Amino acid sequence: MASTTVNVVRYTALLGGVFYGIVHRRSLQKAHDAEVKHHAIHEREHLIEEAKAAFKRKQESGKDGVVTDPEDPRFDLEKLIAKWEAESQ
Questions:
Q1: Model confidence over 54-85: pLDDT tens digits?
Q2: C-alpha distances in angstroms, 31 versus 6, 18, 27?
Q3: Fewest Cβ atoms closer than 10 Å to its Cβ: which of 1, 40, 45, 70?
Q4: Residue 18 Cα distances to 10, 13, 29, angstroms
Q5: Could you tell me which of 86, 60, 64, 69 has the C-alpha nearest to residue 77?
Q6: Given this model, what pLDDT does residue 71 score?
Q7: 43-80 burial, b if ≥16 CB within 10 A, otherwise e?
Q8: Could you read off the pLDDT of 5-43 as tens digits, one per residue?
């Protein structure tokens, strides 16, 4: 049989470990939540910048009717070359 002192030390170590685990888990969760929030904010900023750039391209292309973005399905190389020739003269 274990003495009373040994049992006190065992249960103290057990409760200390449980308490440490709870505190450690909370600190890890807090750091993870901060990282998720940081990522969400930067992702939102990135999407806003992309939307602004797309809107700017749309506004610029609407002025003369020539689509200058080669990724756009309405892109026409002949119209773009004709536009450049007209601007150079």
A1: 888 777 766 677 777 788 888 888 888 888 88
A2: 37, 20, 6
A3: 1
A4: 12, 9, 16
A5: 69
A6: 85
A7: eeeeeeeeeeeeeeeeeebeeeebbeeeeeeeeeeeee
A8: 999 999 999 999 999 999 999 999 999 999 999 999 999
**Paired tokens of 29:** 């969760």
Domain ranges of the chain: 4-64
Q: Which two tokens stand for residue 61?
A: 């292309």
Q: Is 72 left (phi over 0), alpha (psi -120 to 50) or beta?
A: beta
Predicted local confidence at residue 62, as pLDDT: 60
Q: Please tell me the pTM assigned to this model.
A: 0.53
Q: How many Cα atoms occupy the beta-carbon half-sphere of 36 within 13 Å?
A: 6
- What sign results for the dihedral spanned by CA atoms 28, 34, 37, 41? negative
> Which amino acid is residue 3, in one-letter code?
S
